[in-house]
Amino acid sequence: MQCGVGQFTRLLGETVEKIEPGSCTTLTLTRSEGSVRDIWRAVGSAQSVVCNFPIVAWKRVMFAPLLALAIARLRRRKAVLIQHEWSGLHWMRRITYMPALLLADTIVMFSPLVRRELSEAPLVGWTAKKCVLAPLPPNIEASAGIADSELRHRLVAARHDGRLVIGHFGSIYPAKQPNALLEIGAILKRRGLKPLIVYIGSFIRGVDTVEQDFYARARELDIAGDVIVSGFVASDHEVFGLFGAVDAFCYPLDEGLTARRSSVLACVQSGKPLIVTGPVLAEEFDHHPRFRELIDRGAIVLVARGSDGEAYADGIVAALKSPKVQAPFDFDGWWKDVAGAIRALMP
């Protein structure tokens, strides 16, 4: 399974290299790659060590990234930790990441809400004082062409038959409240709109029962036959082929929209309306003018926090009736913004 944070790390390194050639290299840490000697040598040749959390295979490579940060401190290199989320992580994950928070000289976050979550955490809340905010870009770019697929044909046929195709993109895990979208689908079905809910992504394997609970809830709502989970999609071309067959995207999020939602930014590039819960904090996008612009021009439609499923269903229907305003998406510019912000933290 591809790791979104791993993809972010790769693109960040490539963009820093474009800005300042020869300034950045990567060290791959897996069960078979990245020995203690490799880490020692790599850290010794660098001025800064930048580490990203969370990672999908956290139980398999739990200690190697922590070792890299510890060696960085031992060898007096600057340790920069990029922590994408906090409270949304399983408590076991948070425990394993605590040493990284302590070892880091600087902690980069993409959301004021996530920074607040860390500040309220027992034992390590004080590390939020080391946090700086950076603007998060999308991990994938809309391509000139698309790749066809059996699922795309299925979605196109469904739309041709008058079905309303609602999309949800990205890894499926509890913090995204995947079951809440099922309830919205049930409401749309009661309204006679014949929804087909397609989750473009796969379940993250963990210690919870999110996948079993998801399908059980779909059966309870009598929409099990109206739900598709694609599983892992191998290429960006195939992803955007599926996006083109979606009518609208919807994200009912308990935490509300935050500036760290890369999956939302990927969807917006399709030009399809995206309906999502409004942010908890009024200042959530103050550090991210490009994200704010998407909201201001209506590419992202906010639903008031605390709204019920009927409000989301209303938002979807209204968004589909509204005129679409497609604007160029400066993918490279988004990445130069974050690369410049993180490069500025290094010696």
Strand order of the largest sheet: 7-6-5-8-9-10
Q: Give the CATH level 1 class of the largest domain.
A: Alpha Beta
Question: Rounded to an integer, what's the Rg over CA atoms?
Answer: 21 Å
Tell me the number of structural domains. 2
Shape type? globular
CATH superfamily of the largest domain: Glycogen Phosphorylase B
Q: Mean pLDDT, rounded to whole units?
A: 91
Strand composition percent: 5-15%
Give the termini separation: 34 Å
**Computed structural class:** alpha/beta
Largest sheet: 6 strands, parallel
Helix content: 40-55%
Q: Write the H/E string, N to C.
A: HHEHEHEHEHEHEHEHEHEHEHH
**DSSP E strands, number:** 10
Which assembly state applies to the chains in this document?
A: single chain
The assigned CATH architecture of the largest domain is: 3-Layer(aba) Sandwich
Count of separate DSSP helical elements: 13
| CATH level-3 fold name of the largest domain | Rossmann fold
Word description of this protein:
This protein has helices at residues 4-19, 36-44, 64-74, 91-103, 112-119, 150-160, 178-190, 210-220, 236-243, 262-268, 289-296, 309-321, 331-343, and strands at residues 48-53, 78-83, 106-109, 131-133, 164-169, 195-200, 227-229, 248-251, 274-277, 300-303. Helices cover 41% and strands 13% of the residues. By secondary structure, it is of the alpha/beta class.
Topology of this structure?
Elements: H1 4-19, H2 36-44, E1 48-53, H3 64-74, E2 78-83, H4 91-103, E3 106-109, H5 112-119, E4 131-133, H6 150-160, E5 164-169, H7 178-190, E6 195-200, H8 210-220, E7 227-229, H9 236-243, E8 248-251, H10 262-268, E9 274-277, H11 289-296, E10 300-303, H12 309-321, H13 331-343
